[in-house]
Design a protein that fits this description.
This protein has 349 residues and is an alpha/beta fold. It contains eleven helices and 14 strands. Helix 1 runs parallel beside helix 2 (75-90) and helix 3 runs parallel beside helix 6 (205-218).
Length: 349
Amino acid sequence: MPTLFDPLRLGELDLPNRIIMAPMTRSRAQADGCAPEIVADYYRQRASAGLILSEAIYISPMAKGYVRTPGLATAEHVVAWSRVTRAVHDAGGRIFAQLYHTGRVALPDWLPGGAQPVSASALKLNGQNKTDDGPKDFATPRALETSEIPGVAGEYAQAARNAIAAGFDGVEIHAASGYLIQQFLDASINRRSDAYGGSVQNRARFLFEVAEAVTGAIGVARTGMKLSPRIKFNDVAEPDAEDVYPYVTKNLSGKLAYLHAAKQGGYEIHPVARANFTGVYFAGAGFNLQSAQEAVTTGVADAIVFGKPYLANPDLARRYRENLPLADADPKTIYWGGAQGYTDYPAAS
């Protein structure tokens, strides 16, 4: 039986362990979406993970959803991320870029020309988004025209090409957290009457088109995807998740290098994904060392994704292997600032 510390073959990569660093927004990017030098330090420090999944990276200027988040939409973005991937590889690590389009989460403030955000349907997200000028109400999005949707899938493909050009080992398609792909999946958000709305098959069409576009651009071996059914975030409800996710996971089988699913709501995704998806499976959210070890040895998942422990423990894989104590992160510095609470957490002595 495998253990958390055994190697794992992923596409064309050999992971030295099954401890995966989760994608986590840290809001250290420049205003133009470029990752500064400090981001290279941050990921280099965590290179002992079996695989690093980067923070979510927007695929196009219309996809940006939060202040100080990075992109992979311009030549400058590629150059900036090249410094990061080089640092990780020089430290012996492996890193995938998580790609996303935030859809209705975006504010006109940082979209080209103050454009209206887009979504599956013209339904406004409740609440407010954080900006440097204080919280602002979300804007009512416009529904993407049917003719526009293939172009958005193409933007994912181009961002994936940019990721490979920047030196990433692959990409993870972010189909979770209430962002654009999940906005299409969720029947409480998607009110369309065309080929992308109504039935489960229609609402999943965009997800499959994105997956096909990305794998067509960079190959199956370098493409993963994240799902988070009924996540309690961004007004996700998914009233028919019991129909959606068996269908999605079964139809993704054999078409990705891995599937990453996080149980962040009431829906029990792990047994569904494991039963339907043939391939490497990453399980995420809520695991500690003991539950992670048990999940790997019993076959619940092939690897476990850890988020919060990586904030203050850059050498988490070693700490788990040697049963060393874990440090606690300062919640005040997760999303703001420079080195403080970002690169100043030391490795265990």
